[in-house]
C-alpha cells in the first residue's frame, strides 16, 4: 500500500526524485573517498615529509568536500520539495474525495478519523518518505562501500566487522522492536486525549451546568497519564539507545586501535590506513543503525498509508449519474418547476436492522406548503435528507419534476434546492460571505431583502460592521435563533425552486415565527415549500400536512380536516399532537 501510494503520488516529481538520488549517490561516494585521501596524506605526505603531496591532496580533499556539501544540500532540498509536494497532493485528494461522500460514508468513517487521516497519517508517510530519500540510497552504499574500502585498507582488521556489525544489529533491532508497540500505543493515546478534549470543549456548557468539572478533569487526567506512561516507556528505551550505540562504536574503535596498533608495530599496517579504517568502521555502523531504524519505521508508515488509501478508494454511495438528465428535460421538457414526489419510498440506515421510512408516497407542489409533523424520531429529518441526496433511498423513488433525483447531476439538483438544516451551520467569515454561499453574485440589496424576510435585518443592522460582521466558526458568535434566521436568509438569497426547512422555526419565538412566515409567503409563491415542524402553530396554514409516525404517513390533509372527527382525513395522532400543545378551542 505504501509503495502504491508513493508510486502514484511521486510520479509527477520523478525528475526531482531521480536527481536527488543521483546527488545522494555522489555525496555518499565523496564521503567514502575522503578518509582514504586523509590516510594518503598521513602515510605519503606527513610520514614521508612530502609537503607538495600534502598540498595537492589537501586541495583535492577540499574540492571533494565542497562537491559533497553541494550535493548534500541539493539532495535535501529536492527531497524536501518532493515529499512536501507529495503531502500536499495526498491531502488535496483526500479532501476532494471526502467532499464527494454522502452522510453514509462520513458516518461510516467518523469525522475525527477523517481529520486524523488527512493530517497526521499523511505526515507520517511524508516523514518516512524524507528518510527513505536519504537512507535508502546512502545506507546500502555506505555499507557496501565501507566494507570494500575497509578491506582495501586492511583485510585482517576487517574481520572485526564480523563481530561488531551483528552485535550492533541485534542491540538496535531489539531496542526498536520493543519501542514500536509504544509508538503504536502513543497514536491511540493521542487520539483518546483529542476525543476527550473535543467532547469537553463542545459540551462545556453542559459540563458547567451539571457541575461535572471535577469528573471531567479526572477523565482527562486518566487519558493524559496514559499518554505520559507510554511516552515515558518509549523515552526510557530511547535514553538507552544512544548511549548503547555510542558504547558499541567506542568499544569497536578501541578494538580497532588495539589490534591495529599491534599490526602497525609489526609493520603490517600504516598509521594513515588505521585512521581511515576507523572512519569506514563508523560509516558501516551508522549504515547498519540507520537501516534498522528504517526497517522499523516502514510498518508504521504502511499502516498510515493503508488508512489513507482506504479513504481514497471509497466511492460515494450517492454517485453522479453517468449520463445526467439536463434541467431542460424536467417537467416533460418544460424546465424545472419544483414538484417533489415521493413514490413508495423506503429507507434504512446502513447497518440498521429495520427501515426508518416505510412506503412513503406524496407530492409537494409549487405554490404550496407541505408540512411534516410527528413525534421525535419519527423520521422527519431522514425524509427531508432524501431530497438533496444526503442519502439515497433503499426502495422507491424521489422525483423532482418527474425525474429521479439520482438521474440529475448533483450540481443541477443542488441548484434547485434551498436547504435549511435542523442545526443551522454557518461558516467562519462574514455575514455577507455566508449569505452569498449559494449565490456568489447576489447584490447587497438582495442580501438585505433576504434578511428582512427572515426577520434578521434588525440585529444585523445593529452590528457595527453590518453585513461585514465577522462570523465565528460554526456561527458560534450568534444565538441559536439568530443563526437559524441567517441560515434561512442564506436559502432565501438563492431563490430556489424548492425550500426544505428542517425544524427551522422552533428556535424562534411565536411572534417572530409568525412574522417570518408572513414575510416568506410572497417570496415562495412560485416555490415548493416543505417544512418539518414540531409546533402546530407553525404549520396550521399549510396546504398539506403529513403526519408521520414510526416512519409511516398516518394522516394527511389540512389542519381542520385532520382535526375534524367527521372528515375522512381525521387523524388521531394529529389530534394528540395538537392537544399536547394547545387546547382544541385554540386549535379550531
Ligand atoms: N445516521 C443515522 N444512523 C442510524 N440511525 C439514524 C441516523 N439518523 C437517525 N437515525 C434514526 O432514524 C430515526 C429517525 O430519525 P430522524 O432524525 O429522521 O427523526 P426526526 O423525526 O427528525 O426526529 P427529531 O424530531 O427528533 O429531529 C431515529 O430512530 C434515529 O434513531
Automatic annotation (TrEMBL):
Its subcellular locations are: Cell membrane
UniProt domain ABC transmembrane type-1: residue ranges: 18-300
* Transmembrane regions listed in the UniProt entry: 54-78, 128-151, 157-177, 237-259, 271-290
Q: What membrane topology does the annotation report for this chain?
A: Multi-pass membrane protein
Domain ABC transporter, first and last residues per copy: 340-575
In Pfam terms, one family for this protein is: ABC_membrane
Q: Which SUPFAM superfamilies match?
A: ABC transporter transmembrane region (SSF90123), P-loop containing nucleoside triphosphate hydrolases (SSF52540)
An example of a GO molecular function for this protein is: ATP binding
In terms of superkingdom, the source organism counts as Bacteria
**Keyword annotations for this protein?**
ATP-binding, Membrane, Nucleotide-binding, Transmembrane, Transmembrane helix
Do the record's keywords include Transmembrane helix? Answer: yes
- Protein name per Swiss-Prot or TrEMBL: ABC transporter ATP-binding protein
Q: Tell me what organism the protein belongs to.
A: Myceligenerans salitolerans
Amino acid at each position: 500500500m505504501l509503495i502504491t501510494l508513493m508510486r502514484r503520488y511521486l510520479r509527477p516529481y520523478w525528475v526531482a526524485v531521480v536527481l536527488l538520488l543521483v546527488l545522494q549517490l555522489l555525496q555518499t561516494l565523496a564521503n567514502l573517498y575522503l578518509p582514504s585521501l586523509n590516510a594518503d596524506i598521513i602515510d605519503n605526505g606527513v610520514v614521508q615529509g612530502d609537503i607538495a603531496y600534502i598540498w595537492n591532496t589537501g586541495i583535492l580533499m577540499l574540492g571533494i568536500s565542497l562537491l559533497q556539501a553541494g550535493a548534500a544540500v541539493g539532495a535535501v532540498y529536492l527531497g524536501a520539495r518532493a515529499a512536501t509536494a507529495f503531502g500536499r497532493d495526498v491531502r488535496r485528494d483526500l479532501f476532494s474525495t471526502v467532499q464527494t461522500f454522502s452522510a453514509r460514508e462520513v458516518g461510516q468513517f467518523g469525522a475525527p478519523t477523517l481529520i486524523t487521516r488527512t493530517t497526521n497519517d499523511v505526515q507520517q508517510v511524508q516523514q518516512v518518505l524524507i528518510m527513505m530519500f536519504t537512507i535508502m540510497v546512502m545506507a546500502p552504499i555506505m555499507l557496501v562501500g565501507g566494507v570494500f574500502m575497509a578491506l582495501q585498507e586492511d583485510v585482517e582488521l576487517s574481520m572485526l566487522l564480523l563481530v561488531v556489525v551483528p552485535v550492533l544489529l541485534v542491540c538496535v533491532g531489539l531496542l526498536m522492536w520493543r519501542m514500536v508497540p509504544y509508538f503504536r500505543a502513543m497514536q491511540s493515546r493521542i487520539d483518546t486525549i483529542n476525543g476527550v478534549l473535543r467532547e469537553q470543549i463542545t459540551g462545556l456548557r453542559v459540563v458547567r451546568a451539571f457541575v461535572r468539572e471535577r469528573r471531567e478533569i479526572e477523565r482527562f487526567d486518566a487519558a493524559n497519564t496514559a499518554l505520559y506512561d507510554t511516552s515515558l516507556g518509549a523515552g526510557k528505551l530511547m535514553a538507552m539507545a544512544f548511549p548503547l550505540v555510542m558504547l558499541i562504536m567506542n568499544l569497536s574503535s578501541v578494538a580497532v586501535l588495539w589490534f591495529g596498533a599491534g599490526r602497525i608495530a609489526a609493520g603490517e599496517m600504516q598509521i594513515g590506513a588505521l585512521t581511515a579504517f576507523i572512519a569506514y568502521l563508523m560509516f558501516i555502523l551508522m549504515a547498519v543503525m540507520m537501516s534498522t531504524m528504517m526497517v522499523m519505521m516502514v510498518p508504521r508508515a504502511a499502516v498510515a498509508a493503508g488508512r489513507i488509501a482506504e479513504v481514497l478508494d471509497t466511492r460515494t454511495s450517492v454517485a453522479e449519474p453517468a449520463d445526467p438528465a439536463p434541467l431542460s428535460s424536467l417537467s416533460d421538457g418544460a424546465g424545472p418547476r419544483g414538484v417533489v414526489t415521493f413514490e413508495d419510498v423506503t429507507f434504512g440506515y446502513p447497518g440498521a436492522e429495520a427501515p426508518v421510512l416505510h412506503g412513503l408516497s406524496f407530492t409537494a407542489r409549487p405554490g404550496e406548503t407541505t408540512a411534516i409533523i410527528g413525534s421525535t424520531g419519527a423520521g422527519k429529518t431522514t425524509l427531508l435528507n432524501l431530497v438533496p441526496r444526503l442519502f439515497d433511498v433503499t426502495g422507491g423513488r424521489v422525483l423532482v419534476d418527474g425525474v429521479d433525483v439520482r438521474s440529475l447531476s448533483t450540481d443541477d439538483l443542488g441548484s434547485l434546492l434551498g436547504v435549511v438544516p435542523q442545526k443551522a451551520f454557518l461558516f467562519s467569515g462574514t455575514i455577507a460571505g455566508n449569505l452569498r454561499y449559494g449565490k456568489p453574485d447576489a447584490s447587497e440589496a438582495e442580501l438585505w431583502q433576504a434578511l428582512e424576510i427572515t426577520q434578521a435585518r434588525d440585529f444585523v443592522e445593529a452590528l457595527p460592521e453590518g453585513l461585514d460582521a465577522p462570523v465565528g466558526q460554526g456561527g458560534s458568535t450568534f444565538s441559536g435563533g439568530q443563526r437559524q434566521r441567517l441560515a434561512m436568509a442564506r436559502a432565501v438569497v438563492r431563490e430556489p425552486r424548492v425550500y426544505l426547512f428542517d425544524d427551522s422555526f422552533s428556535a424562534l419565538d411565536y411572534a417572530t415565527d409568525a412574522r417570518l412566515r408572513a414575510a416568506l409567503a410572497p417570496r415562495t409563491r412560485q416555490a415548493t415549500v416543505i417544512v418539518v415542524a414540531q409546533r402546530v402553530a407553525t404549520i396550521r396554514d399549510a396546504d398539506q400536512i403529513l403526519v408521520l409516525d414510526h416512519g409511516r404517513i398516518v394522516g394527511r390533509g389540512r389542519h381542520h380536516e385532520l382535526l375534524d372527527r367527521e372528515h375522512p382525513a381525521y387523524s388521531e395522532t394529529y389530534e394528540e399532537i395538537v392537544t399536547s400543545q394547545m387546547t382544541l378551542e385554540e386549535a379550531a
